[in-house]
Amino acid sequence: MAYPFAHPREVRIVSKHFGDAGARPVDGWVERGGYRAARKALPEMTRDQVIATVEASGLRGRGGAGFPTGLKWKFMPKDDGKPHYLVVNADESEPGTFKDREILRWTPHQLLEGAIIGAYAIRAEHIYIYIRGEFVDVIPVLRRAVVEAYERGFLGEDVLGTGLRIECTIHVGAGAYIAGEETGMLSSLEGRRAEPRMKPPFPAQAGLFGMPTTVNNVESLAAVPHILVNGADWYRQWGTEQSPGTKLFSCCGHLRRPGNYEVAMDFNLKDLVFDLCGGPRPGRRLRAVIPGGSSVPVLTADEIDCPVSYEGLVQAGSMVGSGGLIAMDDSACLVRAVRRMVEFYAHESCGQCTQCREGTAWAARILRRIEEGEGRDSDIPLLLDISENMAGKTICVLSDSAAAPIVSSIQKFEDEYWAHIRRRSCTAVS
Amino acid sequence: MRDWHPAVAAAEPSQKAERDPAAPLFGGVYRERFERILGRYPTKRAALLPVLHLAQEVRGWLAPETMTRVAELLDLTPAQVRAVASFYTMFNLKPVGSYLVQVCTNIACDLCGAGKVLERFLSETGTEPGAISADGRYTVVETECLGACGFATAVLINDRFYESVTPENVPALLAELP
Ligand SMILES: Cc1cc2nc3c(=O)[nH]c(=O)nc-3n(C[C@H](O)[C@H](O)[C@H](O)COP(=O)(O)O)c2cc1C
Ligand code: SF4
Ligand code: FES
Q1: How far is CA B34 from the centre of its chain?
Q2: How far is the CA of B91 from the centre of ligand 2 (A)?
Q3: Chain A residues inside the 8 Å CB shell of B106
Q4: Among A115, A234, A238, A384, which has the highest number of CB atoms less than 10 A from its own CB?
Q5: Considering only CB atoms, which chain B residues are within 8 Å of A112?
C-alpha cells in the first residue's frame, strides 16, 4: 500500500491500513479482522485480565507523557458505585504531529474498538471522544463510524450481547492547544475554559464531572486491540524492555518523503530520517531534528545516531514526546524556528501561571528581536534565565515545553544566535 | 437526510458559507440537535462548547445577543459564556467573510514556505489578515498547526481541509469554492 510513502523497514500495526479507504466502513474493518479483540475481550476476559494483558505488553501512552497504559487503567477504582468516564484525547495539536488524524481518518473503527475495550476495562459507562474542531474532514468520518458501531451493537445498551452499556459521544473542540493537556481537556469538556488543574487529585480519583476518569491518546487506544488479539509477548517482540512495541512517527519539515512511519521502538533515528524519509531535499544538508514534537529538545544532525526508544532519546538529549519529527536542513534559521515555536506557546498559554504567561510572551519578543538583527549580547543569558524560571514551576508542563526549544537551541546552535546579534546575519544557507 | 444519532449530534464542522445571522436559536433540525446534545451530558454547562458551535453553524459568528441567548438556553450568565467563547480561537467574536481561510504558519509549514501561501491568499482576495474582503466573501487568517504537518502547507477553508497547498494552487482553490 503506497500510503503516501511506505517502507519495508516499517512494522505497520496501527498504520497497516493507512491509505486503504476500504478499511473505513465497519464491514471493511470487520473483513480486515476488526472487532475480533472486542469480541474476545468483552465476553471472554475479565476486566482484570484485559488490564493485565495491556500492562504486560508494556504499552506506554502515545500522547506525549509515555505513562504505561495498563497501569493508568489499574488506578481506576473498582467498587465505588460512581459513573466512570473514558476520554479519548483526539485533540492532536502539538506542532509537528499528525498521526492521530491519520488513524482517525483511515481507521476510525480501530480507535473505537480500542476505546470500547478501554471503557470495559475501567468500567466506563460513557466514552467522550474529544476531537479537534479543525479536523473538519475527519469529523464526518468518525461520525459515520460511531453511528455504525451503535448499529452493530458495539456501542449502546447491550454491547456485544453482554448486557453492558457503553455510550459514546463525539465532542468537538474549539481551538485551544491547552485542551490537549488532560486536565485542561476535562475543564473544556465541562464547558469551561480549558484550564489545566492541579494534581492531585488525579483524574482517576476525581476527573470529569468529579468522577473517576481516564484520558487516553488515540494512538495508545488504537494499539490495544492488536495487543489483545495477539498477546503481550507478541507486542514485546519489538522495541526494548522499557519501550516495547511500535510507534508512529509523523515526519515533517525538510524531508524528501515526509509522512507517517511506524517503526519498532528500538529503530535508529538516523535511519528513520535518512532511509525511510529519504533525508533532506537534494543538494541540502541536514541541520537539526526535533524528534517528538515542538515540546522536546532539538538535536543536531550529529546527535541522531540513537534508538527512538523512550530511554534512547533521553540519552541522546531529547524525548519521544508525541512522535512528531521535524527535520531542518541548512536552509533553516534556528532562531526563526525557535521563535515560531515559542510564539505558539505564548499564544496557547492559558494564562493561569505567571511564569508561563509572562515568560512565553517575553521570550517570544526577545527571539523576534534577535531574529530581526536587533538582539543584544545580554539576550542569550536573559533567555536562559527566563527559561529556567519557566520550567518545573507551573500547573502543567506547557511552560517547560516552551523552554525546551529555547535552551536546547542555545546549547547547540549558539553560533546562530551570535550571527544574528553580532553580525545581523544568519548561518542558514539560502 | 443525515443521521443525527444523539452520539454524533454535535459532530459537524461549524464554519459554513451559508448562514443566517437572524435565525432563531434553535429551530427545526437545529432544535432537535440541541436537545440531543443536551442529553449527552450530566450537566447543562458541559454542552456549552457544542452549543456554541451549533450557534455559529447557524449564524456564522457569535454576536453578543447570540451568546446571551446561549446563556439563557443553558442557565448560565452571558459573562460566563463570553469568558468561555473568547478562550477558544474557533469561535468568531466578530463577523467573518463567507469563507474563512485559515493558513497554518506553524513550524513545519513555515519551514516549507507557508508564508508565501499566506501572502498569495491575501493578494488574491485583496484583504488584510483578519479583515473581510470588499465583496464579503473572504477572511484570511494565520492559524496554528493544523495537524497535517507532513503535507505542508495545510489550509482550512470553512469545512474543507486542504493539504500540500502551494502559492501556485491558491487561485484555482479559491475559484472552485461555490
Ligand atoms: C500542553 C499539553 C498539550 C497536550 N496535547 C495533547 C494532545 O494534543 N493529544 C494527546 O493525546 N495528548 C496531549 N497531551 C498529553 C495529555 O496530557 C495526556 O498525557 C495524554 O492524553 C494521555 O494519554 P496517553 O497516556 O494515552 O498518552 C498534552 C499535554 C500537554 C502538557
Ligand atoms: S503552565 Fe501555562 S498553560 Fe499550563 S496551566 Fe500554567 S499558564 Fe496554563
Ligand atoms: S505545522 Fe502546519 S499543519 Fe502542523
Answers
A1: 18
A2: 21
A3: 95, 340-341, 344
A4: A115
A5: none
Residue A27 lies in a domain: yes
Check which CATH number belongs to the domain holding A72 and give it: 3.40.50.11540
- Ligand 3 and A95: CB distance under 6 A: yes
How many angstroms is it from A217 CA to the middle of ligand 1? 7
Residue B1 pLDDT > 80 = no
**Which one of A209, A253, A336 has the shortest CB-CB distance to B108?**
A253
User: Pairing state of beta strands B138-143 and B160-162?
Assistant: unpaired
Cα–Cα nearest to A369, from A387, A343, A330: A343
* Last residue of one domain, picked from the residues A175, A210, A236: A236
Q: Could you tell me the pTM of the whole model?
A: 0.98
Q: Are A198 and A21 in contact (CB under 8 A)?
A: no
Confirm whether B77 is domain-assigned. Answer: yes
Same domain, residue pair A79 and A123: yes
- Write down the pLDDT at residue A2: 52
Residue A430 pLDDT more than 80? no
- From B33, B53, B87, give the residue that closes a domain: B87
pLDDT at A176 over 60: yes
What residue numbers bound the domain in which B161 lies? 99-176
Are B147 and A134 in contact (CB < 8 Å)?
yes
Nearest to A337 among B3, B42, B107 (CB): B107
B94, part of any domain: no
Asked whether residue A392 carries a pLDDT value surpassing 90, the answer given is: no
ipTM of the complex: 0.98
Domain extent at residue A265: 246-329
Tell me the residue type at B152.
A
Nearest to A409, CA basis, from A320, A341, A311: A341
Q: Is the CB of B146 under 6 A from ligand 3?
A: yes
**Using the beta-carbon criterion (under 8 Å), do B11 and A142 form an inter-chain contact?**
yes
Identify the CATH number of the domain in which residue B129 sits.
Answer: 3.40.30.10
Task: Tell me if chain B has a CB within 8 Å of the CB of A77.
Answer: no
pLDDT in tens, A71-130: 999 999 998 999 999 999 999 999 999 999 999 999 999 999 999 999 999 999 999 999
Q: How far is the CA of A193 from the centre of ligand 2 (A)?
A: 12
CA distance B126 to B117: 14
Cβ atoms of A331 and A427 within 8 Å: the answer is no
CATH classification of the domain holding B20: 1.10.10
Nearest ligand atom owner, CA of B152:
3
Q: How many folded domains does chain A comprise?
A: 3
Q: Which of B76, B94, B171 is nearest to B126 (CA)?
A: B171
Q: What is the CATH number for A368?
A: 1.20.1440.230
- Check whether A16 has a pLDDT greater than 50: yes
Q: Which of A300, A329, A358 is the last residue of a domain?
A: A329
Chain B residues with CB under 8 Å of A176 CB are 87-89
Atom of ligand 1 nearest to the CA of A91: 8
Q: Please give the number of the atom of ligand 1 that sits closest to the Cα of A62.
A: 27
Is B126 found in the same domain as B71?
A: no
Averaged pLDDT, B125-143: 97
What is the least distance, in Å, from the CA of A196 to any CA of chain B? Answer: 13
> Does residue A317 sit within a domain?
yes
**Summary mean pLDDT of chain A:** 96
Q: Is A1 a residue whose pLDDT tops 60?
A: no
A34, A40 contact by CB (below 8 A): no
**CB of B148 sitting under 6 A from ligand 3:** yes
